[in-house]
Amino acid sequence: MFLVAGWWQGRDDTGRTIHIGKEDLLTFMQGRAQVYDAPTFSALLAEMSDEDREALIRDASLQEALYREAQALGLAEADPLVRQRMVQQMRLILAEEATADTELSEADLAAFYEANKAQYVAAPTLSFTHVFLRAPASRAEATALLEKLRSGEVAADQAGQYGERFLYQQNYAGADPGLVISHFGPDFAKAVFALEPGSWQGPLQSAHGWHLVLPLAKEQGGIPDLADVRDQVREDAMAERRREASNAALDKLLASYTIKLDDGL
Amino acid sequence: MRCAAYATVAAACLSAQLLAACSASDAPPPMAEAEAARPKAPAGDPGDRQVFFGDLHLHTSLSLDAAASRTETLPEDAYRYAMGEPIHYLGRTIQRRAPLDFLAVTDHAEYLGTVRLAMRGELEVPGEGWAELLADRRPGATMFQLMSRAVAGIRGEDTPGLSNPALVNSAWNGVIAAAERYNQPGKFTAFVAFEYSPTIQAEGAAHLHRNVIFRGPDYPSMPFGATDSMKPEALWAYAEANRQRGIESLMIPHNSNLSSGLAFQYDDFYGNPMTRAYAANRLRNEPLVEITQNKGTSEALPKLSPEDEFAGFELLPEGDGPGASAPGSDAEIRGSFVRYGLQRGLELAETLGVNPFEYGFVGSSDFHSGASASEEDNFPGGLGMGDDHRDPRSVLQTNSPVIGAPNSMLSASGITGIWAEENTRPALFDALQRRETYATSGPRMRVRMFAGWGDSAAFEDRADWASRAYRWGVPMGGILAPRPTNGGAPTLLIQAAKDPLSGNLDRVQIVKLWREGGQSYEKIYDVLWSPQRQVVNGQLQPVGNTVNVAEASYTNTIGAPELFGSWTDPDFNPAQSALYYARVLEIPTPRWATYLAKQTGIPLKEGTPPWLQERAWTSPIFYRP
What we know:
Chain A is built from 10 helices and 4 strands; from the N terminus they run ααααααβαβααββα. Chain A is of the alpha+beta class. Chain B is built from 16 helices and 27 strands.
């Protein structure tokens, strides 16, 4: 909690005794510095000289005394800033209370997922490495190199020793069609997403030249099962539930009042 | 500066972070430690690093000025837009064509979130005129009146009602929560960040603004604003105190073009000469500078770089408005534009032994819309109702009272490219710290640059050339290894590949800055260019121009998709300190205002450039004698 200004321990019935404890001093110091970081201020308090501590106690006591006097005069009512601060605090407290024990059942989760399926659609992705021969290399040259890669059972991390410099990447991890189209063109993208992972394949042609491709992993994409996106769905559903709960709490509060309007409004 | 434990808590040490820093900052760490703190490249083959594109400077309605100009987006919207999802903005649905890989929402720390609450009627601001201004929903004069009052925070002023630490804390917690929610390691990085925005009225509204980017996963309890201190030194103390508690951050100065010469001064911000320790501390906190954005590019001015035919790029118009550029004297310009700041850094290093301005580059949007929209043909505006595209005549034809020219002169710029192992907060943050970054005016061209001693020809054409280049030399942002005894001159190896969705490439230039006989110099070399070009009297001729202004179109029939090659400095002198950065130019393409003119049939105002040569600027590679 950071909204501690004005909250105070150590009252008594007469209103003329002020008790000051360590917690009170820490609260006072943090309120004064407008920074809420108890460990730092605790350390500061512990290292304080007697003289400084006395000055601190005087200031804290004086603040409490003045606060009580102000309360007696009803100043909170008159000052729009104080009023605003109280309203703001109340709003926060209501929201916190309303959402504290927000829970979701399996059915809630499933219902939210059904209603918002579209936002969980995933594009298909492909991880692959490729060996590149720049245009105007011929298909025959590419095919010959493919045989070499196959017969040598060249692993993905050795592929960089073959072929030529490509203007974009040599390895692609979880690339979606948009990325592949932008780097290789639509025809290549269509062809490469049709390949099955496991072995050197091709040659495939792009606007830049010929490519020998080793697909490593493929994800189909589409609408995922709830089980696969459960955490994200849960978080989204909770966020919506909290929003609804805090709005409902405000509505409920307002409904418990009768609003009478002046004539002509 | 030392703080007695309690008695002087008030003025100098407004925050606990500063309190802790007060005792520690007497002796900033020496250079060796600052160097050691810069992370080493992690294990693994750096040749497999990928480039990730994103924006490290964006505002939502939590910012005092964005709220005043009727922007309603929140950090959640900003992340969704960056990830490629559609969002609502000023009554329209907008969506990026190519999603970004990372985003830092950098709302102004001053009055964080409170102007938004006041605009929504949830917060009362006492005082003459506020109620009327806040209730008025029209664009125009009253909006600018509201703006000038709402931004008092960046001048370091408190405004009753808007200055409210408890509400700032609440908004800051919301900023952190939004970033946590949208950060998806491996897919999308959401950095927690804020902007520190001191603006010195007495110096012609000089911007000393800095974005503070956190590495995560821990964050301080409050951001730090101009209302805490107008001196960037205090911000670094805040950062250092956080660092000692395990909270790492870096700061990026920006809009140096609006700094009235204060961005790259010889002295510190109190007017004292820099010391070695000061320079090391500054460098440790600020490894990067922003070179381009919505409110102008801060690379160089034609006036001081007459030999640079491409220096006059997307400059903020000079004029009367409070937000117009007023470059002032030559000395002021040298303190305001990055190229001359880099030269001053080399100069200061001669006496201090440390270069306080050893910057890498980033490019950002600084839009106040919540939408990082750097695509020229898909630009919805960036300043809320300050440049509302629902009123295209005003955008294209009417002089804005802020910049003294039509808003069509503002830039749909820019983004940052980061070379990193993976798209995660730690990997990207470490790359920012080692400056393996480059800025672009918006397109996603891929640029690599290395510098080393000796010939790179043996591996240039190999598929795994990048892996070998890392073993041969250092990447952009690096410091050249000590020169071997018979080392000759440094060689730069550069690859630039076009943005698949944008124009072909015109040329790659190397900008060299160096010190000689107590003076600073600059020279621009054309080093790579597209085929079939003419060089007349040593001058590379223009690439041509296919832009059809009436149709807002161009063709990739000129230029090249890739430029690759090496260049060895022909004028190298091993005794002179120097730096090299690459500038990659696209062929001319239409500016965003030209697309808007075509869509609406409203012509550009005379003086608005109809096309531009988009570009990238790599972080420099530094040579120390």
